[in-house]
Amino acid sequence: MPSRLPSRQLLRSLQSARFATHAAVKPVAVQHSGALAKQEPKLTTLPNGIVVASLENYSPISRVTVSFKAGARYETPDNLGITHSLRTCAGLGTKDASCIGITRNIQQIGGSLTASTTREHLSYNLECNRDQLDTALNFLLQVTAKQAFKPWEVSDSTPRIKLDLAAVLSQPHLIVLEQLHKAAYRVGLGNSLYAPAYMLGEHEPEMLQHYVKQHFTTNRAAVVGVGVSHDYLVRYAESLPIENGIGPAPRPSKYSTGEIREIGRAHV
Question: Do 78 and 210 form a contact (C-beta atoms < 8 A)?
Fold first, then answer.
């Protein structure tokens, strides 16, 4: 027969049980024995002159850039706009890999391989999952140190350069920046990041190879990584088949006041 407890007595019983349960539970200190130690940026200069810099932040995404002192300021009147062509030719067939092979393999591992230029540097940028870094770095090596510049591929890249120029003309702020540099420095730092229209199709494979041989040297190169072990990156930099050398000095870029007038661009 079920017992019938008074309501007050039942409430006291429930409260006592609750307090007893709370008293039995003891706080336990949480220990993070597996916490990753914060890493500081590391810098190494190899005996051949390549600078290696890295920051290990334990990110699942690794980013590696190989950069050369080969930006637009090193162009001459004879090869003006050649860095634009080199930027466009990144990812074309190399001595050991085809264009479609590079593209498909980078896509299959979910990576990204791009090229970018400034007036100082020409850089090749890789981004991929950390566990696919070995595969991706092989293709980064291909595009930075084993260029082939096959004539038919270089010729086929000309329409892409034309598309870049059309995009620039539709963005007044880019035109202003280019003209400001030209007015301030004239040559060297005054060189544009974009090839002039009259140089379209003029950057032959031999010219591209000559520029690369002159400027893609160890003393002008840096390998920078984020989300990658420094020792691993140093070993990778040591494996790059880049020629030793200092390369040519940049043309003097003396700042001077001036102005540039263009007819037909009142909106700029």
Answer: no
Alpha helices in 112-242 (DSSP H): 133-145, 151-156, 158-169, 172-185, 205-215, 230-239
CA dist 68 and 216 (Å) reads 6
Given a contact cutoff of 8 angstroms between Cβ atoms, the answer to whether 66 and 236 are in contact is no
* Structure-token match 């702020």, residue found: 173
The full length of the chain comes to: 268
**What is the pTM for the complete model shown?**
0.83
Q: How many helices (H) and strands (E) does the chain have?
A: 9, 6
Residue 196: CB atoms within 10 A of its CB come to 13
Q: What are the tens digits of pLDDT across the range 30-41?
A: 455 567 788 899
Q: pLDDT tens-digit profile of 177-200?
A: 999 999 999 889 999 999 999 999
